[in-house]
Design a protein that fits this description.
alpha+beta; five-stranded antiparallel sheet; four-stranded antiparallel sheet; 4 helices; 28% strand; elongated
Amino acid sequence: MARGLGRERVHSGKEGFTLLEMLAAFAIASVIILATAALLHNLAVPFARGTSRVANGERLALAAERLATDIGSARFILQPTSAGPSVAFLGETRRVTFIGVSGLDAPLRGQVARSAEVVSFDIEADGDATHVVRRRAPWLGARTQFQDAALGDQVVLLAGAFEAAFSFARAAPDGALTWVNSWANEPALPRLVKLSLRDRTSGIDLFGGATFAIHANAPPACALQDAAKDCLSSSTSDDQRPVKSASQQR
């Protein structure tokens, strides 16, 4: 009977695992799991950074396109002020407001409705982040000051850890450009508008010094065949009718 018990113990030892073997198996499995997790992390982090860069690049491109479309459509409209007729364009380091044309980027499906609207771009702080925000409102005509428009339809074009500022270029008769930090009570529109976006860590300009050109340099009425030479300085309303010279009025 003792022999039978001995054989049973030997037999059961061959079929089972000792505690030491179980601990060794768990240790090997833990090493494999940790190595797999580290490998996945090392692959996921660069992938996330890469996709983040792509997403940020796409957002920068879309914001630049929006800025170029709106700023390029700025209308040459003179409004009366205490200092005399001034163009409807107000530029500051942290805000730009002007009268533009809506519907320029809409798909061309037959007759696209395009009308004048007041547009603003604001640079706003939100905690540690900076936002570039677009707002708009219908323009109600020459009898209203464009600065008084109730702006809405807020869209955050850009958000991130950067410093932002607007500047404006004045063109000399010889074509030379002079950059200024504000544009108010001016008789003409600026030639170019620049939005600097400097990364707070690297100091790199995320827009690469890109500028946005304003296409209008005179009221639409000045393009008429019978427009006088002093049309630009004589137009004071949205109607912007050209003032004829004395010889033309006879």
